[in-house]
Amino acid sequence: MKAAELFDLTGQVALVTGASSGLGVRFAEVLAANGASVALVARRAERLAAVKDRIGQNGGRAVAVSADVLDRAAMRRAFDAAEAAFGTVTVLVNNAGVTHADRAIEIEETQWRRVLGTNLDAVLFWAQERGSIINVASILGFGVDKGLIAYSVAKAGVVQLTKALALELAFKGVRVNAIAPGYVVTEINREFLAAKGAEIARQIPAGRLGEERDLDGALLLLASGAGRFMAGATIVVDGGQMVGLRG
Ligand SMILES: NC(=O)c1ccc[n+]([C@@H]2O[C@H](COP(=O)([O-])OP(=O)(O)OC[C@H]3O[C@@H](n4cnc5c(N)ncnc54)[C@H](OP(=O)(O)O)[C@@H]3O)[C@@H](O)[C@H]2O)c1
């Protein structure tokens, strides 16, 4: 078996939420470059259109569908649009996410609900019976940091949800797994990492923050037949940061 064949996604139809910026853009581009047709979902239509065009220019197939993951009707329309364009969605990447910085005693309910709703509830609601479901957790689903209570709790929930869904869906041939990235500079953390990035990088055994392309291998493993016997796993991709925290 050649590696290129093992990881090939020809004929697969992927739907990536949060495909308008950061990791979601990269995920969509990598899936498309390896043969999948990709439905790009997020709220900002112009951004999605630009990603779609770029994928097309590189020889891939993509469709852009503007939808809010908190809006069930809009998400049902997004799945319908993806399936009308390419057929049944076989790879779902639950990547859309937001964060909010506040400590436990200060956080307002609206912010708590927004972070939990986007990062956790939507992962459950859109984890329909797809061939491979890839949830995007975080190392903050394992450790915690001050001021990130809602985000850390949501991501810990994603790790558990991944296991629970895998347990219930594996017998149907649906594989549910997750990727837990360490810090990668994107819109979600640009300001925070501008202030703290150098200090955090010093604590990472690999000596640097992550780059979007560092996640390519884990993504392709979980999306393709290469990960055919994986279910309920969360792959940590963090340059060893978690090991350092635990140690
Ligand atoms: N960057 C990191 O260091 C890091 C580390 C660990 C985990 N993660 C996780 O990786 C995922 C992607 O984050 P990122 O770093 O790429 O951040 P980002 O650049 O801010 O991207 C977040 C994406 O989520 C979308 N989104 C947010 N709320 C949405 C909603 N209600 N409906 C639809 N789409 C929504 C945004 O699109 P619109 O605004 O256009 O809707 C955007 O495309 C998140 O789950 C994040 O928690 C990131």
Helical region count? 9
Widest β-sheet, arrangement of strands: 3-2-1-4-5-6-7
What general form does the structure show? globular
CATH T-level topology? Rossmann fold
Query: Which oligomeric state applies?
Result: single chain
Strand proportion: 5-15%
CATH superfamily: NAD(P)-binding Rossmann-like Domain
Which secondary-structure class do the elements indicate?
alpha/beta
Give the N-to-C terminal Cα separation: 38 Å
Flag low-confidence runs. none
Structure description:
The structure is a single chain. With 247 residues, the protein is of the alpha/beta class. It has one domain: NAD(P)-binding Rossmann-like Domain (Rossmann fold, 3-Layer(aba) Sandwich). The chain is built from nine helices and seven strands. A seven-stranded parallel sheet has the order 3-2-1-4-5-6-7, sandwiched between helices. Helix 2 (22-33) packs across helix 8 and helix 5 runs parallel beside helix 6 (149-169). The mean pLDDT is 96. It binds NADP nicotinamide-adenine-dinucleotide phosphate (NAP). Residues 17-18, 20-24, 42-44, 47, 68-70, 95-98, 118-119, 136, 138, 181, 183-184, 186-189 line the site of NADP nicotinamide-adenine-dinucleotide phosphate.
